[in-house]
Each structure stands twice: as C-alpha cells, then as structure tokens.
Design goal:
Helix content is 33%, strand content 21%. It has helices at 62-71, 94-109, 126-137, 154-164, 174-177, 184-187, 208-217, 235-238, 240-252, and strands at 19-27, 30-37, 46-51, 74-79, 119-124, 144-148, 195-200, 223-228. The longest helix is centred in the middle third of the chain and has 16 residues, at 94-109. This is AB hydrolase-1 domain-containing protein.
Length: 253
C-alpha cells in the first residue's frame, strides 16, 4: 500500500517544457523512465534531483511544480519507480527500490549535462524517504537536501493508514509485520550538509508529527525546520518565491 503503484501508467510522455528523456536498464527486462527538464534559454545554475511522492508520475501536475524552478535557471531530474508511469517491473520490495534509487542517481550524476553543476536533492512525501537515504549515502556529491511532507519511517506511516482504513485497534501490529528499511529519522542523523524540512500543520495525508520526528532526530547544526500552512506537498505553489530561494541558497552555500 505504501509504495506499490499497481500499474499506474499513461500511453505516451509529452511535455511543453524543454526536456530530455531517459530509460535506465536496472535489471533484466526492467527499465526505469526518467526525464531531465531544462530551462529554455538559461545555462543551468544547478540540478535538482527530485524524488516524487507516491502518485506523482511524470505526466501528472508534477510538471507544473517544476516551472518556478526552471524559470530561475535550475534543471530538474525525476524518474518513475518500478510499475509506475513508463517504468516496468514490480514495486514489491523496498530494498530493491532503494537499489534503483541509488543506481539512477549515480547514472545521472555522471551525465555531461549534470557534471560540474551543484546538485540539491528534493524529496516529497514517499519520495522523501528515498531522498534522505540517497543524501546520506551520497552526501559528498550534493549541496543539500530539502524534504516536504515526508514521514519518519514506513511503520509510522503504516499506522496512519491503519487509522484511515478503520483498523485503529490493530495499529500495534504494524511494526511487527512491516519492514523498516532506511527510515528517514535514522538516515537524517548521518547528514552534515544543509538540510531543510518543511511540513504543514494541516497535512492530513502525512501528519505533521512525522515530519517533526525527522527534524528531532537530525543534526541541528545543519538542519532547519520550516512550518507551513498548506495542503500536502503543495508549498511550491503557496510559498513559491521563498521555496525557490531555499534551493538557490543551497547551491550557493
């Protein structure tokens, strides 16, 4: 329920934005689809590696969220996890998805379009867990990490789903049956690069407390928390100028 996409796809990728499409061979007969969105006329000032939320494939409103970043000169890369969008395979194992995330990051950072430019990792919702894990294992390659609406661990969000599904009386069993691979609240402790965590107090999909749990576990010398009032992972629209400025500050740090 947390990371399986159940075959959510679309017929063809199209975009009015300047972009370059990629397919990554990660396993036998398994390809992951990714796109690098580029500013129209500016030489890119940096790259944002985006780990998207559960339902954010590359033909969703995700493209709209990139426009303010492209306008300021960033290029943005995102890929679709297995069994989602134009990617193949099955998303039935979080450790396999972790391996995919690192594989694609390593491939992308070696591209001529990316090399020599500062990189910021951006994770939203489910994507924040993969973003934090990647940042902790590749922090020598990046300038910073920005998380929005992210949960502290898979069991923590599993308990939330138990409540939504009217299984409140059984939430105690979630930590016993659900894996706890690369919890964000543990991975965040390894970071010594600039990190920003933002979370809305009115977020009904990932409760505010789960974002605070990540911050509470972090190294306060390099981590900031930004309280917002917005819908789940919608701050790029409600706080556009301030949000984009956070990316700019990171590449200049």
């Amino acid at each position: 329920m947390i990371y399986q996409m159940n075959g959510t796809d679309y017929a063809e990728f199209t975009s009015e934005l300047n972009h370059q499409e990629f397919y990554f061979d990660v396993d036998k007969d398994i390809k992951l689809h990714g796109v690098l969105f580029k500013p129209d006329s500016l030489e890119p000032i940096g790259t944002i590696f985006h780990y998207s939320g559960k339902g954010m494939h590359l033909m969703s409103s995700i493209q709209k969220s990139y426009k303010p970043l492209l306008k300021k000169g960033f290029q943005v890369f995102c890929f679709e996890r297995r069994d989602f969008g134009k990617s193949t395979g099955e998303a039935n194992n979080s450790l396999v998805l972790k391996k995919d995330a690192l594989f694609v990051f390593d491939k992308v950072t070696k591209m001529n379009e990316i090399k020599g430019k500062p990189i910021v990792i951006w994770g939203q919702s489910l994507g924040g867990t993969f973003a934090t894990m990647t940042a902790s294992e590749r922090q020598e390659k990046i300038k910073g990490l920005i998380l929005e609406g992210t949960f502290s661990s898979f069991p923590d969000i599993g308990k939330v789903y138990a409540r939504i599904l009217k299984l409140e009386n059984f939430k105690w069993i979630v930590p016993l049956i659900m894996n706890n691979d690369f919890p964000a609240e543990e991975e965040i402790k390894k970071l010594n690069i600039p990190t920003l965590i933002l979370h809305s107090k009115s977020d009904v999909q990932v409760p505010y407390k789960l974002g605070r749990n990540i911050y509470d576990a972090s190294n306060k010398a390099n981590t900031q928390f930004w309280d917002i009032n917005s819908k789940h992972i919608m701050a790029i629209y409600d706080y556009e100028d301030q949000y984009v400025n956070e990316f700019i500050k990171m590449i200049k740090s």
